[in-house]
């Protein structure tokens, strides 16, 4: 079909410059080159002149109606501008006998035609009345001796055939109408006086007779006669311009494309389109009121081309393909073992586990030596178990998430730290209670035996397990694919992250209890900083807790500060695993490596020292602080006294005046 990019009206009485405006309007869309003209020959001539003045020669392809036809006047002196124009004329034939009849017409034998006298004056360039003559006009008086075709040029008008057929159509319709309304009469009957125009039109549309040229005269349901046209093209060959027949229309188009020639002598058919076809992944945004004109808009972001005129968003787990014509699954990523983000935590964890196992083996081998006894063997093994779990968590955090792995993460991530800090808290609390009690009484505090210490430690760790069990009941563990973490503005970089359904807030809550134990343990470490240095582990525990607090204070801003990063999964996992491993390493290094060093390299120092009672121990520590006021100025407020580090194992006796604490290392 033909689509109209724009329709421009030519005023009935165009002003100066009006045709220049028309050309400017036509140039608004340079891709639409074909101009269909329904105008008289004078307007056509002026339009071609305006196009020539605008230097548009060869740009426009003109298609003219039968008012242009094969006339010379519209293209005179602007042949190059009109080159390639396609025009039509009704297919016609000369009517035999009409020429002989018409050239025999004179003023004497054609008085019934009231316009014939005016035609006579124009045809012979004369005036019938002497009074109409003016001096200097160059006109002469008509003599009535002039003859058509002899004293003037004559060519049969092309539309004579159609005029004759029109007259016959009217006559046939009146005849048929008369036979229907006035049967048996030759004059008008009352039914035809006055004439019913609607009924006459029906009779005209029913006609079907042979015309003067032998072609059938009939009309369709719209009242139109069948079109029969000759198709011309204005061509320039060897600097000679002419109208050449290139086809015809009789019920259908018959066109000889090979004989057509376009501006500049080009044989290839030129294109004329309002808008170029959109590329793949672009939708058409039509111009209002012009269905064949559109702008191409790219389906950007996560949109794809749903159809010619619309873009739609891909599903949340899909992204558009390279040309945005469809959607592809978003690739799924997870923390790989080969990734640098995983290699460093794994190396730290492997080294930590190796060191932990080395300490455990050393303690088991030298289980009955004084230093191992003085460390509190039962709590030491519990603490080493917690340290081992802290290192082992690294492997759970890097493993491919599934229901089992996610469940184990919930259980062991907080459990390892809870066991470690519960053991340390029990130790520092025991030391604190012993010296607090020793200052006011010689009786032993309650719950300081190894069995009691283990019960307290496991009770504190059980709170963590209870919280995890409640969490499992409220929200069962599962692995999910998060498509928002790495949903970048560039869809090609989008990734789905396979992870456990543990939010940042849930993770902090999971570690919150361990941090509470850590803070409480730090408080007791501060309170016991004045305990004699050679008597207990208060000072190493204090350093351990201070360092651990610094590690976790650095962890929190790093963890939450990267929540908007596309590398969030990698940074947070690495930060968490390294922080947990470093916390375990601090405990292992400050609490156990010095003891292993003495046990293995300086066995001469691993010997029992003299036994002293609780009364003597506490009194010595108290009096040292009283008689040595500078002790409070020493780092951490320790009292430098020579006290026993290990006491021989004895059982409590109610009959003893002084109670010995050889089996209960502080």
Give a verbal description of the structure.
By secondary structure, this protein is an alpha/beta fold. The protein is 42% helix and 14% strand. It has 17 helices and 19 strands. A six-stranded mixed sheet has the order 1-2-3-8-9-10. A hairpin with a 2-residue loop joins strand 9 and strand 10. Helix 8 (340-365) packs antiparallel against helix 10 (377-398) and helix 10 (377-398) packs antiparallel against helix 11. The model is unreliable at 620-666 (pLDDT under 50).
Proportion of helical residues: 40-55%
* Poorly predicted regions: 620-666
User: What's the helix count?
Assistant: 17
Average pLDDT reading: 84
Topology, pairings included?
Layout: H1 18-26, E1 34-37, H2 41-53, E2 61-64, H3 79-82, E3 86-90, H4 98-103, H5 116-124, E4 126-127, E5 140-141, H6 160-181, H7 197-205, E6 208-210, E7 216-218, E8 228-237, E9 240-250, E10 253-255, E11 282-287, E12 290-298, E13 303-307, E14 310-313, E15 318-320, E16 327-329, E17 332-333, H8 340-365, H9 370-374, H10 377-398, H11 403-438, H12 450-474, E18 479-486, E19 495-500, H13 504-527, H14 538-561, H15 568-591, H16 593-601, H17 614-627
Parallel strand pairs: 1-2, 2-3, 4-5, 17-19
Antiparallel strand pairs: 3-8, 6-7, 8-9, 9-10, 11-12, 13-14, 15-16, 18-19
Helix pairs in contact: 1-2, 6-7, 8-10, 8-15, 10-11, 10-15, 11-12, 11-13, 13-14, 14-15
Q: What is the structure about, briefly put?
A:
The protein is 42% helix and 14% strand.
């Amino acid at each position: 079909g033909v689509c109209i990019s724009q329709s421009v009206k030519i005023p009935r009485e165009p002003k100066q410059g009006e045709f220049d405006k028309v050309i400017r309007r036509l140039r608004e869309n340079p891709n639409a080159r074909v101009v269909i003209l329904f105008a008289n020959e004078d307007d056509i001539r002026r339009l071609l002149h305006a196009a020539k003045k605008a230097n548009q020669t060869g740009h426009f392809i003109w298609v003219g109606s039968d008012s242009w036809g094969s006339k010379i006047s519209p293209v005179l002196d602007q042949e190059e501008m009109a080159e390639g124009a396609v025009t039509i004329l009704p297919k016609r034939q000369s009517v035999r006998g009409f020429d002989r009849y018409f050239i025999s017409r004179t003023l004497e034998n054609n008085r019934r035609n009231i316009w014939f006298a005016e035609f006579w004056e124009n045809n012979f360039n004369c005036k019938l009345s002497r009074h109409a003559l003016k001096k200097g006009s160059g006109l002469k008086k008509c003599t009535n001796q002039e003859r058509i075709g002899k004293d003037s040029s004559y060519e049969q008008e092309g539309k004579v055939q159609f005029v004759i057929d029109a007259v016959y159509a009217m006559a046939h319709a009146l005849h048929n109408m008369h036979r229907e309304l006035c049967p048996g009469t030759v004059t008008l009957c009352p039914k035809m006086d006055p004439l019913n125009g609607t009924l006459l039109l029906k009779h005209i549309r029913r006609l079907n007779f042979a015309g003067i040229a032998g072609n059938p005269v009939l009309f369709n349901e719209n009242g139109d006669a069948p079109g029969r046209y000759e198709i011309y093209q204005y061509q320039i060959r060897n600097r000679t311009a002419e109208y050449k027949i290139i086809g015809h229309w009789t019920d259908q188009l018959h066109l000889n494309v090979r004989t057509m020639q376009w501006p500049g002598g080009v044989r290839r058919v030129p294109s004329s389109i309002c808008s170029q076809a959109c590329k793949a992944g672009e939708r058409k945004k039509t111009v209002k009121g012009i269905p064949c004109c559109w702008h191409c808009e790219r389906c950007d972001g996560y949109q794809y081309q749903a159809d010619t005129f619309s873009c739609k968003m891909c599903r949340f787990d899909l992204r558009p393909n390279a040309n945005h014509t469809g959607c592809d699954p978003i690739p799924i990523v997870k923390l790989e073992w080969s990734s640098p983000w995983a290699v460093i935590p794994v190396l730290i964890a492997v080294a930590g586990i190796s060191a932990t196992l080395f300490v455990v083996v050393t303690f088991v081998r030298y289980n009955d030596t004084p230093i191992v006894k003085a460390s509190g063997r039962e709590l030491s093994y519990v603490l080493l178990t917690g340290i081992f779990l802290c290192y082992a968590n690294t492997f759970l955090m890097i493993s491919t998430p599934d229901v089992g792995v996610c469940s184990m993460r919930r259980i062991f991530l907080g459990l390892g730290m809870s066991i470690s800090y519960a053991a340390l808290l029990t130790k520092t609390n025991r030391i604190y209670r012993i010296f607090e009690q020793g200052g006011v009484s010689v009786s032993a505090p309650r719950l300081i035996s190894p069995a009691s210490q283990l019960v307290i430690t496991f009770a504190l760790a059980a709170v963590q397990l209870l919280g995890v069990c409640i969490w499992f009941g409220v929200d069962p563990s599962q692995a999910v694919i998060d498509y928002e973490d790495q949903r970048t503005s560039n869809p090609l970089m989008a990734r789905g992250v396979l992870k456990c359904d543990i939010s940042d807030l849930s993770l902090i809550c999971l570690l919150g209890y361990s941090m509470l134990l850590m803070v409480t343990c730090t408080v007791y470490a501060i309170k016991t900083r004045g305990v004699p240095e050679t008597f207990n582990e208060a000072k190493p525990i204090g350093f351990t807790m201070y360092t651990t607090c610094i590690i976790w204070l650095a962890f929190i801003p790093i963890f939450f500060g990267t929540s908007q990063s596309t590398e969030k999964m990698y940074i947070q996992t690495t930060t968490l695993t390294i922080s947990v491993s470093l916390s375990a390493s601090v405990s292992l290094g400050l609490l156990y490596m010095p003891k292993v060093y003495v046990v293995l390299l300086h066995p001469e120092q691993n010997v029992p020292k003299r036994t002293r009672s609780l009364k003597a121990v506490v009194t010595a520590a108290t009096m040292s602080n009283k008689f040595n006021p500078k002790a409070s100025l020493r780092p951490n407020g320790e009292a430098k006294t020579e006290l026993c580090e290990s006491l021989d194992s004895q059982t409590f006796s109610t009959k003893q005046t002084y109670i010995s604490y050889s089996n209960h290392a502080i």
